[in-house]
Amino acid sequence: MSQSMQELQAEQTQMKAQDSELSQNLNRLQEELNNVESQNSELSQNLNRLQEDLINVKSQGLNEKRTASDSLEKLQEEVAKLWIEMLISKGAACSTCPKNWLHFQQKCYYFGKGPKQWIQARFACSDLEGRLVSIHSQEEQDFLMKHISKDSWIGLRDLNVEGQFIWMDGSPVGYSNWSPGEPNNAEQGEDCVLMRESGQWNDYSCRSFLYAWVCEQLATCEASAPLASVSPTGPTPSNEP
Ligand code: MMA
Ligand code: CA
């Protein structure tokens, strides 16, 4: 055999060896690729599960926050009322109201005029540092009746659960003065409540414009001298935003 033939054979053997090495490498790479792909799909499944968990935790948190802030508002309401009762029992007069507000028992009332939907009346009251009126007795109803002249929005609505009316002060309906056959949730649905000129209540479309609305706020106590420096602990009651 010639010199060059031997060289060629040697080269061929070397090439075969390289070839098998390459194909081994290729197999290993293929395996690794498979591993990476399966890890990848596992990771993306985990990610999906984590995202679901996150959404659940977030909505749970929101619900808990809502419940807690509802309870807090009710407690603040109770504290404010107890505080007033305590002051009255110590001889204080709790009958001071802002200008243009009328005093009755422990509250002040504002009889708003001008076309408003229920939600606009609600904002008008909160702009005046009050809220739409909550009515809890025949005496309060009689007082209000004496001062209204048109259909007026009051602070009662069943926006969240149909038929479950809640006052703006957070309490359910105890005393009531519905017109006969009301609330009837007529037509496209009626979730807001008005007081008719007769004084009787009717559920009505929240989007309708009424020309009158009634706000309330707690009256301020003019404490007698020794009480002047005392004040209730905790935040003062805020009106619903
Ligand atoms: C009627 C009665 C009410 C209802 C209004 C809607 C005039 O009263 O059905 O219940 O709210 O109509 O216009
Ligand atoms: Ca109605």
CATH class of the largest domain: Alpha Beta
How do the SSEs run, as a string of H and E?
HEEEHEHEEEEEE
Number of helices: 3
Could you say which structural class the secondary elements and strand pairing correspond to?
alpha+beta
CATH architecture of the largest domain: Roll
The amount of beta strand, in percent, is: 15-25%
Gap from first CA to last CA? 102 Å
The bound ligands are: methyl alpha-D-mannopyranoside, calcium ion
Name the overall outline: elongated
Number of domains: 2
Low-confidence region ranges = 234-241
* CA-based gyration radius: 37 Å
Helix content: 40-55%
What's the CATH H-level superfamily name of the largest domain?
Mannose-Binding Protein A, subunit A
| DSSP strand count | 10
What's the rounded overall pLDDT mean? Answer: 92
**What does the main sheet amount to?**
8 strands, mixed
And the CATH topology of the largest domain?
Answer: Mannose-Binding Protein A, Chain A
Write a short abstract of this structure:
The protein has 3 helices and 10 strands. It has helices spanning 3-89, 118-127, 138-147; strands at residues 93-96, 102-104, 107-116, 131-132, 152-157, 166-167, 192-195, 201-204, 210-218, 220-222. Bound molecules: methyl alpha-D-mannopyranoside and calcium ion.
Helices and strands, with pairings:
Layout: H1 3-89, E1 93-96, E2 102-104, E3 107-116, H2 118-127, E4 131-132, H3 138-147, E5 152-157, E6 166-167, E7 192-195, E8 201-204, E9 210-218, E10 220-222
Parallel strand pairs: 5-9
Antiparallel strand pairs: 1-10, 2-3, 3-9, 4-9, 5-6, 5-7, 7-8
This protein binds methyl alpha-D-mannopyranoside and calcium ion.
